[in-house]
Amino acid sequence: MAPVTLITGGSSGIGAATARALLEQGHRVAVTGRDAERLAAFAAATGAGEQLLTIAGDASDAGDVAATVSQVLERWGRLDTVIANAGFSLPGTLEDHDPEDMRAMVLTNVLGPALLVRETLPALRESKGRIVVVGSVAGIRYTPGNLYSVTKWAVHALVENVRLLVGKDGVGVTLVAPGVVDTAFWDERGGAPEASLTAEQIATTIVFALSQPADVVVNQLVVRPLGQIN
Fold it and tell me: Which residue in 42, 76, 148, 185 is the catalytic one?
């Protein structure tokens, strides 16, 4: 039976590239995002038909997360892989940020993955499934006044705490921490640096982690483009 994967923030960037890669491998894939029109455009572009389910919702809203998981289970009856990818960054430093924007970023980047794990653990324990969380090299190095970096440090801690919680249950947990990736993240920052990865390269990394034998878990992958020092 084809595995079922749920990806948050799946209509563009790393999430969309990962969805395409897993669809090509025969997965049934559900992707979430806040923009219903963007989700519809992504679905049309993939041509995946019934193998793809798109669900509009807020990754930081407990009700939306619960409804998403219920919809996936109702549609396909199981859940094998969960990829917590939804997140965003604010340009500038915390001195420049609007407090409500700061709150939204913290909730999306940190609470969002925690809610997703909480809601999907019963199904993942049943399937002996896998959790992948997309972090960042910003979660292993410091940058002056960078609140996004703070959220990614928290995400990395969450991943390790989840690993300790569910390892005994046969659920694998992987952190993928990319360096600079040329996605929409850089649109309001003047474009990505010359040394940058593509979303497809990070998708390949995620697929690698998911392709390990059932008794092997790659717990952490840090991926930088050649030339990125920090």
Answer: 148
